[in-house]
Amino acid sequence: MKKLVRTISLLAVTAGFLLPQIGQLNAQSNALSITPRKDYTLRAGEVVNDTLTITNTNRDSPLQLRLSVVDFTAQDETGTPQLLRGETTQKTAWSLRDFIEMPEQVVVDAGATVQVPVVVRMGTEVGAGSYYSAIEYAAVNDIRDDQVNISASGVTLMFVKVPGQAREQLNFLQFGAFIPDPGGTGGAFTGLFFNDRPKVLAYRLKNEGNIAEQPKAVIVVKNSGGKEMYVIQNANPKSQIALLGQARRFDACISPETVQQTTDNGVEIDAVICGDTNFKPGRYTAELSVLYGENGNETREITAKATFWYLPWWFVGLVVAGIGLAVGVGFYIVSRVKNYRGRKTRRR
User: Is the pTM of this model over 0.85?
Assistant: First the structure.
């Protein structure tokens, strides 16, 4: 009887559910190959001299580019930044526009590579924390909108960390099994899977501090008996960053697989996809541990737990059939007992 009650409770949970996604940027355009990102650690007043590598992949025509420093912010929770263009656009609180020096234009011959000098000169009054902007490379005759997706332009993201006592604060928002949409930018958290087995776990954090955070995370998945099924040692596999003020979603494959894929340029690359898992029908618990801390500040930890069920339809059908059979047998037994008692009473 206790097993029957537990089974009915499980189906009730099932009925309750039934009734009621920075990735790394592609740093290439049709004829432009550039350095996608630069990271520096500089104190107030310090200077660094560096170079930007620009390659014209077009072997027939030279490429004339205009270089400019523009600020960016987070476009969505996947880490896709958004350029903030326009002469009237005010500098962000984390802007590097006043601290970067470089040529305004450069010409790259067909099939050639050039090294463009760039100087990052931090102000003497800057405080501890993160500062970032983007260097945009645009053809001189480009027609540009006031605000566009950063992936549509050739850019180098520039990040500077100024050491010192910065305000670090990542706030936990959500954690659980996740189903990404086909485009990878969105999706939905869910606790119940009827068709495919869970493949992705995701967590959401919001950066309320003044330093861009690159958290490290570990996720452990256990079955209902407490046995470890999967351990995701690197639950921030793309080393993604939560920008200032950004609510960021971090996705982690439960069973990652490396496969070969062909890029638009015909280049074979190794890519990581979320492979199938071997979950059996039942209840599972995922435990999240996130560590973060930059600039020599104290390391902080965020922990969370989430539960999900894998109940394929064939299993639900078996459970329903089992309940039906048990109920039928119960009625049959009760009926036989009543008949037996009735006959015994009549004989008396």
Answer: no
